[in-house]
Every structure is written in C-alpha cells, then in structure tokens.
Write a structure and sequence with these properties.
This is WXG100 family type VII secretion target. The chain is mainly alpha-helical. Helix content is 82%, strand content 0%. Helix 1 runs antiparallel to helix 2.
C-alpha cells in the first residue's frame, strides 16, 4: 500500500485514556505520600535544642520529602504533556479526514445545483 496512509483514531484515543489513567494514579500517590510523611513527622526527636541527631535529620527529611514531591509533580506533568500530545495527534489525523468529507460534500452540493 505504498502512498497510502491510515490511522486508527480510536486506538490513539484509547492510548490517551490509558495515559490519563496513569496520571490519575500519580495524582493519588502524592497525597498518600504526604499523609505517610505526616504520620512520622518528628520521629527523629526535638529540633532546635541539644539533640544533634534531630537537628541533623529533621532538615534532611524535609529536603528529601520536597525532592520526592517535586519529582512526582514533574513526572505527572510529563505524563500530562504526553496525554495532550496524543490527543493532538488524534486531532491531526482526524482533521484531514473531516476536511476530505467536507470537500466531497461541497462538491456533491455544487454538482447537484448545476443539474
């Protein structure tokens, strides 16, 4: 079929839905992580006093929590961009089909008025 082009728009859209589901799971993951972190907040001891361990570990834990949060948000954002790209791909495939059908209809209408 050299010179022919075909695409399964429904398959493209289905792929987009699968990606959107993955994003939804990412959105659910972050609140669960934050809830888990809140449960263990302060386990390292009282910061600000003479507890060297607490003074060292507390800031480290918060930095790591912020890094995990930033990573999850970046991954989720990347997936959202991919979902948008796949949806745009479906639109790019569908647009020429719609244009061709519109052109055929317009030609049919024009030829019908000439008779």
């Amino acid at each position: 079929m050299a010179g022919n082009y075909s695409a399964d728009i429904q398959a493209i859209l289905q792929g987009s839905r699968h990606l959107a589901d993955a994003v939804r799971h990412g959105d659910e993951m972050l609140p669960r992580f934050e809830t888990g972190c809140a449960r263990y907040s302060g386990w390292w001891g009282e910061e600000g006093g003479d507890d060297d361990f607490a003074n060292a570990v507390g800031p480290q834990v918060r930095r790591e929590q912020e890094q995990v949060t930033a990573t999850v948000l970046a991954i989720t954002s990347g997936f959202m961009a991919l979902v948008d790209a796949v949806a745009a791909e479906a639109d790019h495939v569908r647009r020429p089909q719609i244009q061709a059908l519109d052109d055929i209809e317009a030609q049919g209408s024009a030829s019908g008025t000439r008779r």
